[in-house]
Design brief:
There is one protein chain. By secondary structure, this protein is of the alpha+beta class. It has two domains: 3-66, Winged helix-like DNA-binding domain superfamily/Winged helix DNA-binding domain (Arc Repressor Mutant, subunit A, Orthogonal Bundle); 75-226, 3-Layer(aba) Sandwich (Chorismate lyase), CATH 3.40.1410.10. It has seven helices and ten strands. The strands form three sheets. Strands 4-5-6-9-8-7 form a six-stranded antiparallel β-sheet. The protein has a two-stranded antiparallel ribbon with strand order 1-2. Helix 2 crosses helix 3. It is elongated and about 65 Å long. The two termini are 35 Å apart.
């Protein structure tokens, strides 16, 4: 484990154990550099990566503190859910609920510029963090651009990973809405009727056209979306 990874693991361990609570100030770059006998740049890298993962909150001119303990995902980039969970030092697993062919409804067909009734591949997968279902992924796939989709073992590789390997993404569109849990979400996310959820609608393209359209549903009390923008000076 490199020095900056040691620093990240130390900070995560303090948070996981409850020694550092939400809002608590974490050691400064100088303090971490002294403790771990590294350069300030190495300490800064560790803090910045944890901030990008949503674990810490960094504000210019202020101390770095523990961020909201809800899990976070960035709206500004497409990250693999398995990597997000493992980066937070948790165990990841996937439950494949459905994997088959479907005829496109008029609404879904419009995302692909297909006609209603055209065949699409379909998957319904629940992504778990430790013993908690964290994301229900309902995805429609262009069979021309990912012909081997239905033959994949999505307990070993996520749909995002597979699609990036066969149809590298060039463009994406996001839309986020707040919803009340529908019956499908209630069943697979183990939540009660009326539970507030965040649903992310995501359409992705490769250079040859639309690759997939996904509906990603998260329990609102366990997940939040955020991001950090840096503008050129």
């Amino acid at each position: 484990m490199t020095k900056y990874q040691q620093i990240k693991s130390h900070i995560l361990a303090q948070i996981e154990s409850g020694n550092w609570a939400e809002g608590d100030t974490v050691p400064s770059e100088n303090q971490l550099a002294q403790t771990f006998s590294v350069s300030r740049m190495t300490a800064r890298r560790a803090l910045q990566e944890l901030a990008e993962q949503g674990v810490l909150k960094r504000t210019q001119g202020a101390a770095t503190c523990v961020a909201s303990l809800k899990n976070q995902s960035s709206m500004l980039q497409i990250r693999n859910i398995a990597d997000e969970i493992r980066d937070r030092q948790h165990a990841y697993r996937a439950e494949v609920i459905e994997l088959d062919r479907r005829d496109a409804s008029s609404l879904i067909a419009s995302h692909f510029h297909f006609a209603s009734g055209d065949p699409l591949f379909y998957s319904l997968i629940c992504h778990w963090q430790d013993n908690t279902p964290l994301q229900l992924e309902e995805r429609f796939i262009n069979p021309v651009l990912a012909p081997g989709y239905l033959e994949q073992d999505f307990t070993r590789v996520t749909p995002h990973e597979y699609l990036c390997s066969v149809a590298p993404l060039t463009e994406a569109e996001h839309m986020v809405e707040a919803i009340l849990a529908d019956p499908l979400s209630q069943t697979h996310l183990h939540i009660k009727p009326g539970t507030a959820c965040l649903r992310l609608h995501r359409t992705t393209w490769c250079r040859d056209g639309v690759v997939s359209h996904a509906r990603l549903t998260h329990p609102g009390g366990k997940y939040q979306l955020g991001g950090h923008l840096t503008f050129p000076r």
